[in-house]
Amino acid sequence: MYITSWAEFTDKAKELWCNAPEKSRYVLKYRPTDSEIVLKVTDDRKCLQYRTHMQNELRLINDWNYVMLKLCTTPNPNPNSITQEIEAERKAERESHKKGGRGKARQ
To answer: Average pLDDT in the 38-59 region?
Structure first.
């Protein structure tokens, strides 16, 4: 089933993964003919999919890959704390950009 809302997809996918991590899998697929990215999380009983053509969602997808990597490699993971960790990193990046941490002229 394709989900059209990014927030809904990530919430349901985290729930699905945490309910049965040993049976679940995550796939990211790029379809160059359609310029489309498809994300899929499944436990063989339920399949959640999200697709996009939007380049502005690449950062969200990158963050999502980080969440999934943490969920896959952490015993007894807490998806909410992982999400908060990513949000804190992004906030720190934005603050450093405001202070001139990016875009300085090279000498």
So the answer is: 92
